[in-house]
Amino acid sequence: GNQQLWSDEPELLTVPDGWKEPAFTKDDNPRGLLEESSFATLFPKYREAYLKECWSLVEKALGELHIKASLDLIEGSITVCTTKKTFDPYAIVRARDLIKLLARSVPFEQAVRILQDDMACDIIKIGTLVRNRERFVKRRQRLIGPKGSTLKALELLTNCYVMVQGNTVSALGPFNGLKEVRKVVMDTMKNIHPIYNIKTLMIKRELTRDPELRAQSWERFLPKFRHKNLSKRKEPKKTSAKKEYTPFPPPQPESKVDKELATGEFFLRESVKRRKKMEEIKVKQAEALTKKQEERNKAFIPPKEKPLMKKSVKATEAKLDIQAIKDKVKKARTKKLGAPPVNPSASSSSATDKKKKKKGKIKG
C-alpha cells in the first residue's frame, strides 16, 4: 500500500487542467464574523477628484461583499470595515487591497478586479533601490519603454495589469504572473534591461504549450545573458611614482642672505646697494614706459586701405586707344579664314562693322 502511494504522488501534485476552487458562499459561514475588522489608507491630494467621482461604484462593489467603505476628504483617507452581514473572512483583505490600489492611482475598472478569487495584487517599492535620482528616472522609464511598449509586452506575457507611478509599481493579476512582474521590475532597477526578461518569458510561454517538456529542465532553451562590465579601464589615469625612502631630511632652502653671500652683494656698502636697486627699478620703469607709449601710438597708425576697384576700371576705359580699335576692325575685315563668305553673311558682317565704327565715333 505504501509503495502505491509513492508512485501516485507526482499525479497528486499536479493540478488538473480546468480545475477551479469553488466560490466561498454564505452557507460556508452562516454565523458571520465574531469581531469587526477595519483597514484605512491615506491617498494623495491629486487623487481626491477621481475618488469622489467613482466612490458610488466602490461602495456598490464592496456592498456585494457586505463591507462598509467610507471616504474622508478632510483627512484624505479611505476606510473599509466588516459588518454583521459579512460572511467571507478574506473579503476585508481584498477590500484593503482595493483601497490601496485606488490610492496608488490605479483606475477603478482595474482595481475592482482584486475582489475576484483568483486575483492578487503586489505594490513594488522601487524608490529606495537606486540612490541617484537621474539614474532612477532613466531606469523607471526603461521599464515603461518607448510609448509604453515594454510595459504592454510585460502585461501581455504575465496577464497582469501593471501601473508605474512615482516610487512604486502596482501590479494586479494571477499569482504566478505577479511573481514574474516583480522579478522584471527588480532586475530593471538593478540595471538589467527588461527586454532580456521579456525574451525569457516569451520562450517560457512557448515551452508551456509542449506537454512533453513538463517533466524536463528548460535550462537548455533559455538564453544566458552575461553581465557585461562596461568599465574596461582598471588602472588609474594618473600614477604617482613613489620616491625611494631616505632617512635624511631634504636640504634647507637658501635664504636671502645666503644668495647675497653667493653673489658677493652682501659685502657691498649700503649706499652702493641702494644705487644698484634704484638702477634696476629705473630700467624696469623705462621698459614699461616704452611699452605704454607703443600702445598709445597704435591708435594714431592708420589702417591699410584697400584699393577701390571702380576707379581703376574708369581709368582703363579712358586710356583705351580708339585708333587701335579701328585698325583691328580693318584687319579682321581684310582677313579671309577658311571658305569665302556667302553674300548675305558678308553684308551682315559689314553692318556690324559699321555699327562698331559708329560706337567708336560716339565715344570719341
TrEMBL record:
Residues of the K Homology domain: 120-190
PANTHER family to which the protein is assigned, alphabetical: HIV-1 REV BINDING PROTEIN 2, 3, KRR1 SMALL SUBUNIT PROCESSOME COMPONENT HOMOLOG
Gene3D superfamilies hit by this protein: K Homology domain, type 1
This protein's GO CC annotations: small-subunit processome
Biological processes, Gene Ontology terms: rRNA processing
Organism for this UniProt entry: Kryptolebias marmoratus (Mangrove killifish)
Superkingdom, taxonomy of origin: Eukaryota
Stated family: Belongs to the KRR1 family.
Cell compartments where the protein resides: Nucleus, Nucleolus
CDD domains attached to this UniProt entry: KH-I_KRR1_rpt1, KH-I_KRR1_rpt2
Entry protein name: KRR1 small subunit processome component
Region (Disordered) residue spans: 230-257, 331-364
Gene Ontology MF, one: RNA binding
Keyword Oxidoreductase attributed: no
